[in-house]
Design goal:
Rossmann fold, globular, 8 helices
């Protein structure tokens, strides 16, 4: 019997903040039954692929680069290696046929693409490889407050190329999808210097986040559904 993965196994960093996506993801995933096919994008550490495989999904774990041995070791340790295959894949040009998957999942991927056009192209590709009625589960970095932006420029090595999403300004990136359920969270936790500090700050964020504008938040998460039929109902969503 596969071992139940911990939140740390699934999310790796700033775990308390990013794992707030799980209840919403589970709600939307309930519409799709294993052993449906799933695709994890940007899965260098393999945590989200592990989460899906542990529930019985057949998962393609993909990343732009080759995987380190630790990724396969993580999956083997939880006894899900028979449910996971590996692929190198560019999110803006996925090497899979139309309608190949019922679920796609990613976290912290769009920002690395650097440009809004490339982010939009990645979401179009995800929409293409989803089957009708399929769902994208996602979590992504937001720009946060002016203080966040200032500190990133000073201390984050990849800030010069990373494009943090703006919410709700970037809502139209999800225009290909029929339904969008999006939420925001996170405030000061990502300023912690260690995972222990981030965990403590995330506990405080649970109090502060509802009191400040969603544009101050640092994480966007949600679920986007591909239309089951040719009739589109429009994009809608919430944040908070």
């Amino acid at each position: 019997m596969p071992a139940t993965p911990s939140l740390r196994d699934i999310f790796q960093w700033e775990v308390r903040t990013w794992s707030r996506a799980l209840p919403l993801w589970r709600e939307h995933l309930a519409e799709i039954r294993p052993p449906a096919r799933a695709l994890g994008i940007g899965e260098r550490e393999g945590g989200l692929s592990l989460w899906l495989a542990a529930q019985g999904f057949q998962v393609v774990c993909s990343d732009l680069r080759e995987f380190p041995p630790d990724t396969r070791e993580l999956h083997a340790r939880h006894g899900v290696q028979d449910r996971i295959t590996y692929a190198q894949a560019d999110a803006t040009k996925l090497p899979f046929a139309d309608g190949s998957f019922e679920v796609v999942v990613f976290k912290s991927v769009l920002g690395a693409l650097g440009e809004r056009d490339r982010q939009a192209q990645a979401l179009r590709e995800i929409h293409r490889v989803l089957r009708p009625g399929g769902v994208l589960l996602f979590a992504e970095n937001l720009s946060g407050t002016g203080l966040h932006r200032f500190l990133r420029k000073r201390f984050v090595a990849w800030d010069h190329y990373w494009r943090y999403l703006d919410w709700p300004g970037d809502r139209d990136l999800f225009a290909p999808f029929d339904r969008l359920d999006a939420r925001t969270t996170g405030l000061w936790a990502n300023l912690g210097r260690s995972e222990g500090q981030r965990d403590l700050l995330a506990r405080l964020d649970a109090f502060w986040c509802p009191l400040v504008p969603s544009s101050w938040h640092t994480v966007l998460y949600g679920a986007a559904h591909k239309a089951d039929e040719g009739i589109r109902e429009g994009v809608e969503g919430t944040s908070g």
